[in-house]
């Protein structure tokens, strides 16, 4: 390495010759002190270096400054009269870091990116504060807190008394939390996590290098044959040039994908990729960088939840920014990487609570299930970010089908606080009623309800099949905004609290109607919840026309029942009429031709057996398929 690759030495005022009484220390002793205190010195260099070069580069630069701190050609070094070798090294390294520009000759790390582990709320607050300070002030804070230097010595090392005053201001504001955070692994470049470089790019470069070597050999032969021709003067490619590694760019907020504000109206792909970046903090690179780092390397103190079917690995390439803003005492960032939505939350300065990371699946989402994402959720309410194609929003109570929805006024696509459904019971059940813009779909209304996921679940309705001697094809699910759909959901909404996590959509299918003993009628429904990862869950029951609750008949997980791949179903329930008489009611879907319940058989889709001696139910379809109720084994 050439002399120009040496680290920047202390400033001119400190390169004066030592006093006659200064000690001359053998270089091997100085090296031993450096090795003994290497982690401390590297941390000081890392904290002092400019904040604009990215964490990977700061880690490497910090190690280089310390490794190159010893004079290259000398055998001894002159130290102050006290002979404090460590203090001499500390001053030399801090001053070199303060004067560091673009360092060359850094330690090579091929194929990996290095990052200190992302910390919790105290570390995030300290990181924000240090990023806003000058390098001398950061160095002074580290010297005061980590090294315990008096003010005069810290001012001498940094050559900046004002930096010491700024460091004291920060120390008073953050207190003991800041001091503990500074000593954590968040700011330790000797304790790092790694991510792979862009493997495909390196493979291409390897092939290109091999091809270049072959071309170079051929060019050499040609040059020997035609000596009068001058060789090409093109400089060899710089190994550090070219596109950055995907893993590095993925953690750089400057590389985030940002969609134009009107792109949703001019694309055939109306999904999360059409969402523009919204929120008042969408340009806050410090916040975005922290969010990306925590996503990639969350510390143990970060509360993390991963929805069923989602993966928790960090971003492989720059994700799309959906939102960055402040709500309810928290800063919130939403990302989308083509498969998952990721929500990062941290408290505002002086706020309570810690950082949180929530990851959910979002692949294959469309106009309806990509229409809202939860930004913040409290004990009793939540606020959502709506898709840019939503032209109208309202709040509806599923338990009150005759009541009109209450309009919701959004600001920047963000709703006011919306009540959450109850964890149990069957009281009021809030749902969002949204309308998409006529610029993409004309007069399209639909319902969403919060079941605990990042995206509210889409509610649909499948009406009763038509009557006649021949069963007609089953009706297709429709949006649950019509009168019949709202009436159906007023009863079947009571099944929603018992559904598993990770629900994407819920369909309420009215598969049979039945005259009830003692008068009146009832409707048999199968409520099917589809999850993002595929498996479904069903709840089957009968709701009397005179009641608002579903009489639960059975339930089953991981089943295709009540879907396009399981279009036949049978169910039964014990029912008492107004006189107290006990009946076993059974019903099958449109394809059922024979029904057996409690030993009685009928060539029909419904059957009622008074005072049954058993609850065994079986059905056969016109193709001979045997059906049993969900959950019966």
Structural class: alpha+beta
Task: Give the overall average pLDDT.
Answer: 83
Q: Which stretches of 5+ consecutive residues score pLDDT under 50?
A: 1-21, 208-246
User: What is the chains' assembly state?
Assistant: single chain
- Count of separate DSSP helical elements: 12
Instruction: Estimate the strand proportion.
Output: 25-35%
Q: Biggest sheet, open or closed, and with what strands and sense?
A: 10 strands, mixed
Shape: elongated
* Head-to-tail CA distance between termini: 75 Å
Number of strands: 29
- What's the Cα radius of gyration? 34 Å
Helical content band: 10-25%
Summary, kept brief:
This protein is an alpha+beta fold. Helix content is 24%, strand content 27%.
Give a verbal description of the structure.
- By secondary structure, the protein is an alpha+beta fold.
- A hairpin with a 7-residue loop joins strand 15 and strand 16 (444-449).
- Helix 2 (38-48) runs antiparallel to helix 6, helix 5 packs antiparallel against helix 8 (161-182) and helix 6 packs antiparallel against helix 7 (151-158).
- The N and C termini lie far apart (75 Å).
